[in-house]
Amino acid sequence: MELWQPRDTYLARHEPVIRVGFIHCEHPRVPPWLEPCAVFLFILANYLLSAPRGVVLDDDGYFILAAWYGGVAHPPGYPLYTLVANLFTHIPAGSVAFRVHMCSAVFGALACAVIWDLVRRVKGSRMAAWTGALGYGFSGTFWLQSTMAEVYSLNAFFFFVLLWLCAIPGKRASRGVWIAALSGLSLTNHWPLMLLSAPALALAAWPHRHALTRRPLPALTWFCIGLLPYAWMVYRSRVSEIAFFGPIESLSDFWFYVSREAYTSIDQSAAAGWMDKLRYATFSLTDAARQFGWVAAPFALVGLAAQWKVWPRSLCWALVAGFAGSTLVLAMLLGFDWDLMHRNVFAPYPLVAHGIFAVWVALGVTVMADWLARSFPAPARTRIVLPALALMAIGSVWLSNAPANYRPAAGWASEFATTLLESLKPNAVLIVSGDYAVGPVAYLNRIERLRPDVEVFNVAGQLFTNRVVSPRSTDPLAARAAFENFIAQEQRPIYYHLNLPHQRPVTLHGLFYEVARDLPAGDNKVILTPRIEQFFSRMFAQDEPKDLSELMHHRQLGAVYCRTLAALTEALENTKISTSLERNCAGYYGLLERATFLLAREHPDPTQALALLRLAGARQGEAVSMQSIAMLDNLFGLAYDQLGASDKASEHVRRSLARWPDSSNPAHAMMRAGQSGQ
After folding, report:
1. Which residues neighbour 593 within 8 Å (Cβ) at sequence distance 6 or greater?
2. Which residues contact 236 (CB under 8 A, 6 or more apart)?
3. What is the spatial distance between Cα 152 and Cα 243, in angstroms, rounded to a whole number?
4. Is 514 helix (H, G, I), strand (E, B) or coil?
5. What would the DSSP string read from start to end of 542-557?
6. Residue 261 CB-density burial (10 A; 0-12 exposed, 13-18 middle, 19+ buried)
7. What is the widest separation between alpha-carbon atoms in the chain?
8. 582-632: per-residue pLDDT in tens?
9. Which of the 8 DSSP states describes residue 373?
10. Which of 20-34, 164-178, 487-501 has the lowest mean pLDDT?
11. Is the pLDDT of residue 18 over 80?
């Protein structure tokens, strides 16, 4: 007996009895599990064909390392995902990176299979079920997150399984125990997103609340059992080679991990205001439509309106609450700056909303087919109109997202990390910083065993056990002193990527810095080897990446290269280098680096620097963070100060502080220096 048959529509009264294309017949011999399994296998095959074979950016390398070593990922630790992903690392199929990507693909495909069965039971149409399941599977961000080492496909799987258990009839007492156990497990994966989804699940279960809570003690017991992966996380933090913030030795350590206390500055920026929240809320709502393309998205609006006529109010309110929880409510809770970097970081958070959007698309397709079918003869209504609309919706979603998400040959992260590691001297020390660098470099070095003679450190003391500083330290002076002491005692060649937590002379190699023990204090050197020159030549010869993570990394590395070219141009006066500087460093970050060099050299040239900064201001849209936008005003302030225009200098310094009031903003020191000068 189906639950909640649609009201008196033609499609509800005339289920197809033969198979035409994707139309599924009502045949008593067809096992009920067959088509969900077909959905799972079809989506999984698509994900495995499109998944990167090697490491990529974002947190991919972090999660692969945590899975391989059975360690602890970044807060809140994600113990369930890393535990299950560790099992996948033992599958003899491709690289370790691909095996962990396979773990995410499996849960993404399972989530789509659950959506198929959910829509089939509440809509009564197999075609609608296929539309919802494939639409979600092919949606842009969900597809992306299901083909890399990330926790979001597992979170979506938990939500839709729990929604299924809450909304679909069954033995309610046993369902209550299952709901409790899976709820506990889901909290060991991504508890913030599951708590945002909890009101939706409560609304779906509300009509059956008495039956679901009939066995409270077993339910509570199984809920606590579901939380056990956190105990595994505590144990592994003490014995594994990978523990993001080190061993968990007390309740305060455990709370530090689980509460995500370390990410307070990311979730809540001092510069962000209500306008940033409003922009993110608007973006998250319209982004759901972009995920499905502008052909399929209008069907969701039809489904949203029509659901109140065909489904129980409890389910309708549950879907609305689930959609709002990871879009509007999340926007109100978060307080980050509205910039490219944070949009990329938080883009996967609304994936539950995208799944609900897919359910509305499925309903909208059947409602529109029912309306259009009135113009067709009776036999053609279910054989032509509904399949045509469903194929149009599914096909448009796939066509919108396939070009960006078919990434089996994605090699940007591996190429960068390989170039970096292979450019170092034998038995070197490499100290890396930034998510984009640490993950790929550590993966190739620790797991693929590329340059095993090189020992990799994290500048913040995170991830590895060979810590120079405590990963929870917030004192920059103490960190600098620790690295100064480390360098003084270390005999091996020492290299840095990006950050320089010391004041010693360095040699800039275009992609990294080398501690120059042979140079006198205050003196630096620049070298550009053919290998690194070839890497950057290939990078600038190609169009900028469309993937946001790769785009930001591309610009970050390009800035270091431009810094190198500016210094070489000054030292060598080489025409080829000057031409390369003009050609490759005309973007926002390249112009900032060139201006910085002109203002910092022994004989500054503030006039030329201002010309470059004005060009950078016209390309400010390329900036990926408020920090880099504030840096433009800092440089304007420094240039005007060198010209003696103190009023204009103060104006730009104040503007920088208004945009990025963080304590690490150099504008604070510039403001204090200006006040003391007065």
Report:
1. 559, 562, 563, 566, 585
2. 70, 71, 72, 79, 243
3. 21
4. strand
5. SPPPSSHHHHHHHHHH
6. middle
7. 90
8. 999 999 999 999 999 999 888 899 999 999 999 999 999 889 888 889 999
9. G
10. 20-34
11. no
Q: Tell me: pLDDT of 380 over 80.
A: no
pLDDT(115) > 50: yes
Return the DSSP state at 151.
Answer: S
**One-letter amino acid identity for 620?**
Q
Q: What pTM was estimated for this model as a whole?
A: 0.91
Rounded to an integer, what distance in angstroms lies between the CA atom of residue 415 and that of residue 453?
19
Question: Based on C-alpha coordinates, what's the Rg of the chain?
Answer: 28
**Can you tell me the distance from the alpha carbon of 109 to that of 115, in angstroms, rounded to the nearest whole number?**
10
Q: Which residue has the tokens 């070219």?
A: 565
- The tokens for 641 are 């100060």
The 10 Å Cβ neighbour count of residue 366 is 29
Please give the Cα distance from 72 to 82 (Å, whole number).
7
Distance separating alpha carbons of residues 536 and 533, to the nearest angstrom: 5
Residue 31: which region, alpha, beta or left (left: phi > 0; alpha: psi -120 to 50)? beta
The residue count of the chain comes to 678
CA angle 530, 558, 540 (to 5 degrees): 65
> What are the φ and ψ backbone dihedral angles of 457, each rounded to 5 degrees?
-120, 155
Domain architecture of the chain: domains with CATH: 29-405 (no CATH), 412-526 (no CATH), 534-677 (1.25.40.10)
The H or E element containing residue 399 is: helix 386-405
How far, in Å, CA of 424 to CA of 98, rounded?
27
With CA atoms as reference, report the closest residue to 311 among 209, 182, 203.
203
8 A C-beta contact, residue 456 and residue 464: yes
**Distance between CA atoms of residues 592 and 48, nearest Å:** 41
Q: Could you give the strand order of the β-sheet that contains 455-458, starting from the edge strand earlier in sequence?
A: 455-458, 429-432, 494-496, 513-515, 506-508, 525-526
User: pLDDT value at position 271?
Assistant: 75
Burial class (CB in 10 A: 0-12, 13-18, 19+), 34: exposed
